[in-house]
Amino acid sequence: MEHICKNCGHNHTLIFCNQCGQKVIQHRFTTKQLFHDLFHNLIHIDKGFFYTFYSLLVRPHVVIMEYLNGATRKYTNPAQFAIYLVAIATFFLVKQGYIEKNSESFNSMIDINNQQSQDFTKSFMELIKNNLNYFTLLFLPFFALSSKWLFKVYNYAEHLIIHCYIYGLITILSLPIALYMDHYAVLKLINFVLVISIYSFSFYKLFNNKRFITVLKSIVFFILSYALFSAMLVLGTYIYLILKKMITGHAF
Predict the structure, then answer these.
(1) What does the alpha-carbon distance between residue 103 and residue 109 come to, in Å, rounded to a whole number?
(2) Which residues 6+ apart lie within 8 Å of 18 measured at CB?
(3) Confidence of residue 147 (pLDDT cuts 50, 70, 90)
(4) d(Cα 109, Cα 91) in Å, to the nearest integer?
(5) CA geometry: angle at 165 spanning 97 and 47, to 5°?
(6) Alpha-carbon gap, residue 146 to 217, rounded angstroms
(7) Residue of higher predicted confidence among 126 and 7
(8) Which of 82, 77, 93 is CA-nearest to residue 187?
(9) Which residues have CB under 8 Å from 200's CB, separation 6+?
(10) 109: pLDDT confidence band, cut at 50, 70 and 90?
(11) N or C, where is the chain less crowded by C-beta within 10 Å?
């Protein structure tokens, strides 16, 4: 039986369009079908979100190398993977008062007494809280830029793919630590060790450098990425406060 693909308009006689891969659907959608498709895509043994997450957990370098070599069908799109996990982490962090808790810990650690500094910190933390998912995802371009400078094997887009997968994984693995660790300095130290460990292992497998060199480059990568991100954040916050003052008459 000949079909006209509803996606690209190509004539074909198969179950799937041989031009774009669209499946022939001749029935109306039902609630049962919607839930079936949802869980099929999530838990399918050969592909899907949970398969991608598990594979990254046990062999991140294999997932990344296969995806970069063209085996994209069985893995969740890297950008979607990062967005999903960051959204999940952001929901729990905001729900549990992560920003407020760490703002208080940070203030006590550096002993802010100046009222203007306190107002700035409060305004800054409020800005982060309202846009936490965007701030979290903004790390990715700087991670990709830093790793491209240090490891010159892939292009910038391919480095973005690497970090979408690894950073998405780290975001979820570090979530319990962020939720239940009260001390700001200890939290950052544990997070640093976790990030360096996962990135060192992944970089070692991907780029075949010596272990010591890989760990050293991973530390430089982490510091450089945060330096670039912090510079962008300070500049962006400064511009935001200037614009806010121009519009409302006050910055805080």
Answers:
(1) 10
(2) 10, 12
(3) very high
(4) 26
(5) 110
(6) 10
(7) 7
(8) 93
(9) 211, 214, 215, 218
(10) very low
(11) N
Report the amino acid identity of residue 11: N
Which of 93, 95, 106, 49 has the alpha carbon at shortest distance from 74? 49
Dist CA 198 CA 57 (whole Å): 10
**In sequence order, what are the beta bridge partners of 81?**
none
Give CA angle at 85 (157, 57), nearest 5°: 80
In 3D space, the residue among 29, 24, 30, 32 whose CA is nearest the CA of residue 6 turns out to be 24
- 3-class SS at 222? helix
Q: Which two tokens stand for residue 248?
A: 């409302």
Higher pLDDT, 166 or 124: 166
Cβ-contact 24, 16 below 8 angstroms: yes
pLDDT at 69 over 70: yes
